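Good morning N.,

You mentioned wanting to compare the apo and holo forms, so I went ahead and generated the holo version with zinc ion. This is what I fed in:
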Amino acid sequence: MENKVKIFNTLTRKVETVIPNVEGKIAMYTCGPTVYHFAHIGNLRSYIMEDVLEKTLRYVGYDVKRVMNITDVGHLSSDADTGEDKMLKGAKRENKTVMEIAKFYTDAFFSDCHKLNIKTPDVVEPATNCIDEFIHMVQTLLEKGFAYIAGENVYFDTSKLEDYYVFSSQSEKELMVGVRDDVEEDENKRNKSDFVLWFTKSKFDNQELKWDSPWGVGYPGWHIECSGISIKHLGEYMDIHCGGVDNIFPHHTNEIAQSEAYLGHKWCNYWFHVHHLNDKSGKMSKSKGEFLTVSLLQEKGYNPLVYRLFCLQSHYRKPLEFSYEVMDNVAAAYNKLLKRIASLKDEGTVDKEAFAAWRIKFEDAIANDMNTSMGITVVYDMLKADMNDCTKKALIGSYDEVLSLDLLKGAENLANMSNNDGNVAENSGVSPEMEEYILSMIEERKAAKKEKNFARADEIRNELLEKGVALEDTREGVKWKLV
Ligand SMILES: [Zn+2]
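and this is what came out, ligand included:
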């Protein structure tokens, strides 16, 4: 098959055509969540764009195997092995065990992914399942002279590498070394950039998860997880490794260091990184301001797929600025698009030639460094083009294999709602739960009016208004819209 998917490779700092190690097959790895809290929608931006990458690769015909880890041990609050243990912090906060916290937030993460139509990777592996693999890697690194024991921990010796800062230019290298001067000093480290492979002398006395190892009872460092899990499931050669730009340093830098030292050859050819989600004041994070989750967006009346569309409208390599104002605009655009699709008739048969031509247009857009906003433009252009509705519907179904915006299902729901005894949704950019709630409130209000309980009817109207939903009584029935 023709290799035609181009992405920006952080390793070479160029947009490159992905050429897999094995023709027609892609081995892909994604750094998974640290399951100590709900996922922030900023983190979920990365998972949405990685999902689009996987689906783009499948769309052009690759057989993709994608692996993701779940970090349930070893991740400290600073990626540079300092600060509190994130899992312990979560357990303490909620008065639960680490494994209870891990289970709860793993489920919550996949529930968010499900709402955002993010496909679950082919293999999902919690770090705590792979302790033997990590120990084997650390042992090999010690034998090969790339690691040392100090203060009862095992460290990777970055001075043994020709080039440790593989991702960066010279000026950034200096900057990175500078940044590391600020973090609390670990006197066991021979070089500032060395990192922990295995902790035995934990500064956390109440560390719940510990395992026997040749170096004493302890637990793995965070970075070794992704190397161990990816090599376990994808073998010694990987095509694409994904993550957020936050992961470039030190996490991915350390992954490359230890994996290539362990394997003795180049490990992964393409590094795909998704940029930050910002608000007006700068980078959004769990610790700053309102903690934005998918559930919060739903509570505010947004369909999670509106957030997916919001992400798709911008390029993955550009910072994206979040605001409710923009979300409102995207919700309106999404609704308008669904209405347009709902107006397509089922008549005719698919025009195969037109279908193929328009499928290629879409493929060209998304295969070109994942130009998702261009992909969406193709959707609009196609809807305007001169061909029968049946072909258009078929194309929408095809595009949605990658976009995953429930375009046909959403349009169908909208059409059904319009037929539903006059309750016409003016704006369906809300979650199905919210929609159900609105419709049940409209029904209750209708019943209250019938019983001449106008106080209750007004109460319902005000309750909905507080949630940002305005009702309008029209001849065709009650209409609602988001305000
Ligand atoms: Zn990772």
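The pocket of zinc ion is lined by residues 31, 226, 251 (CB under 6 Å).

Happy to go through it together on a call whenever suits you.

Best,
F.
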